[in-house]
Amino acid sequence: MKNVTAIISLLHEGSSPGAARRRFRGEAVLSWTLGRLRLCGGLENIALLCWEDQVAQVQPIASAAGAFVLAKGPRCRLPMVEAIAAARKWSDGWRGGLLGACHFDLGFHAPWAVEIVRKLSASAAVLVEADAALVDPNLIQRLIDHADQHPQAEYVFMPAAPGLGGILIRSVLMEQLAAGGGWPGRLLCYWPGAPGRDPIANERCAAAPTSVARACG
Asked: What is the DSSP letter of 170?
């Protein structure tokens, strides 16, 4: 695949110290996340999506990692971003919680994700949480390779423990999510009104090592 971009959103972070301010082994959590993503050869770019008041903390970390920053002015209410963040607080798994929200839905706002995809001419985006300080670059590469092998799959995910992997969304599907007000987690959950085959059993699911898929922390 050409020009795959990792998108990391901080839109859901509130007034408490976020990934750019919290420390892990002497460095900002966000710095660890970016550093590990840089080890993935299949990623052409890394982009950060944040609010204007977060730029002062985010920009130095992004510059050190060669990442692109899209700051969206003063904070405003994004009801779905707030709803997803609230839903995830009540979830005990990586998918299938309230609103069908998955762990990589945090901070997702499709119109602004599309803006990043267009600015960087990306063919696909990989969504990764800002505080995924232990994200595995090998798993992210597997995700990209799997998408390469299944060009008909509009998205590819991996059943890895939260913080280790992500989900790849092709630019065409990202545009559709922006137009319809959707979020990635809805694609991976069972909806009684629209029964169908679990995506974990089709070509959209990239295999993960058993120890990774069954990790409970």
From this structure: E
